[in-house]
Design goal:
2 copies of one chain form a homodimer. Chain A is mostly helical. Chain A is built from 18 helices and 2 strands. Chain A has one domain: Farnesyl Diphosphate Synthase. Helices cover 71% and strands 1% of the residues of chain A. In chain A, strands 1-2 form a two-stranded antiparallel sheet. The longest helix of chain A is centred in the middle third of the chain and has 30 residues.
């Protein structure tokens, strides 16, 4: 287990700082929404998330010759979608978690009703932001000289690309992606020990593919889509995303068993809830081997991007060695 | 109190039938999502809704020279958004309603977790459909000859118009619209009798404007947007929508007090929950007068559309005379 290597850490920091700044600005400059709602949304958005998904959107765009500011609203949007899914997932009717990253969950602080609506609000706002991506100017942090050197059609993704981006993200987040995976996850409670082993294995793979990998791979794909990249580049980034998405979920399962409770904030929650996990089904060693295999596949997918894909290569390694 | 006049009823029937058929097809031809999720989504989508919002999208498009098939996915999308909001609104943590339109609510039948996810799934699918509106061919019901006579750019809204449509709908449905209104509605519980009357009145108007009128007026606006209508036409339809949206909510408050329980399915729910309503604050007669005034304003807004706006004129009348 390692912390993030310094090159990747600095890459992550610069990109996630842009995202933080944009998120902060997006949820503070507007005054009309009710205070409690904005506070609940901000509470969960700024509760210490790793910003993995928005950084993936940016990294994919950079792989395709773009820059962070061109996809920043979409990067914020995927973080909002991820955050809404955590808020709803933690609800008493779902996983019933009191803590998330060591802090009380949204419904513990603001009550269930506000937590449900904060999730709904974040999901809806995500699509509003993606729709604005087409005409948003780079107001967050881009050096002026860089903007002036870029043609406006490069700075602003085209409406067609934005439409396709919304399709890709909604598909990864919806009933055939993340939401579908959460339903499968609920159905899987308690069946890992007593049920049919082969059945459980099939179900587990579906859960991992839908619940986590679908949105992560959409993040990669959408970075390419917004930059108008070739279908080959788009498919390569999508495939990379599917591999690291699965590896990420397997690593999460491993961390749930062996991770440092303080760093994780909620270790053992899956075990408590008798969830079907990779570790429960295959044991820790087999889970690690599977994650390693997926990371190799992820590296393969990036072949054609050369140097520009360095952060994504590093990230693939980090995903299975991280300790939180 | 009257039932729907026959001209309007037949208009409503032909348009809502298209919507029903499309919704049915959209949620049955896909096989990958978990069954319980699809069943829960279908259960609430086909629980006897009036299809007001999708018909408004279509009627607005027709006012601007379009036809139903050109906006059908967006019409389905707004019905999904409306349905998700009802599912979440009925949850124990929110209004805690066991019945909706005389039937057990989604969470009573499928459990809270599935109800939350069915809502999330419908909201996400709505945006996926809107993104598909740009390239969807008129596969539902449009007579072939009619399609062949129309240029493809007329049949398919442009990507820019679709992006703007997504912005309009997400804005009406989100934290500055419907979701924000639901938070204000929660905050208003119990304050209509004891609190500051002027404060209560201001809050009530904000609730009505956000919770119901925002999405309804977005439905009208989006019909114009998708048809590439002039900004004048767009503003007129939006204004019509704001007026009938408020009138609709006031009529709902009146029906909650005096409506036929069998027809409404949940009469008295607001009174039970001590909600701040127009009738509680102003009495039934003043509420009726206010609704009538709003309907006059709605008629005014339609002036420039002539004959094409006949269904919208009829609808404005019906909204305050309906008995369910």
């Amino acid at each position: 287990m390692t912390t993030m290597p310094s090159g990747l850490a600095s890459y992550f920091e610069t990109r996630s700082r842009k995202v933080e700044k944009a998120l902060d600005s997006l949820l503070s400059r507007r005054s009309e929404e009710p205070n409690s709602l904005r506070e609940a949304m901000r509470y969960s958005l700024f509760a210490g998330g790793k910003r993995l998904r928005p950084v993936l959107v940016i990294a994919a765009a950079e792989c395709c010759g773009g820059m962070a500011d061109q996809v920043l609203f979409t990067a914020c949007a995927v973080e909002m979608i991820h955050t809404y899914s955590l808020i709803h997932d933690d609800l008493p009717a779902m996983d019933n978690d009191d803590l998330r990253r060591g802090k009380p969950t949204c419904h513990k602080v603001f009550g269930e009703a506000i937590a449900i609506l904060a999730g709904d609000g974040l999901l809806t706002l995500a699509f509003e932001l993606m729709a604005q991506q087409a005409k948003v100017s780079s107001k967050f942090d881009a050096p002026k000289s860089k903007i002036q050197n870029l043609k406006s059609k490069i700075l602003h993704p085209s409406p067609s690309d934005c439409i396709e981006a919304i399709r890709v993200i909604s598909s990864g987040a919806g009933i055939h992606g993340m939401v579908g995976g959460q339903v499968e996850d609920l159905k899987a409670e308690g069946i890992h020990i007593n049920g049919n082993r082969q059945e459980a294995q099939k179900l587990l793979e579906r859960i991992h593919r839908h619940k986590t990998a679908a949105l992560i791979s959409s993040c990669l794909e959408v970075g390419a889509v917004l930059m108008g990249a070739s279908s080959k580049a788009r498919a390569a980034l999508k495939s990379y995303g599917q591999s690291i998405g699965l590896a990420f979920q397997i690593a999460d399962d491993i961390l749930d068993v062996i991770g440092d409770k303080k760093k994780m904030g909620k270790r053992g929650s899956d075990t408590k809830n008798k969830k079907l996990t990779y570790t429960a089904l295959h044991g820790i060693e087999a889970a690690r081997a599977q994650a390693t295999l997926l990371v190799q596949k992820a590296h393969q997918a990036l072949k054609s991007f050369g140097e520009k894909a360095a952060p994504l290569h590093d990230l693939a390694e980090y995903i299975i060695t991280r300790d939180r």
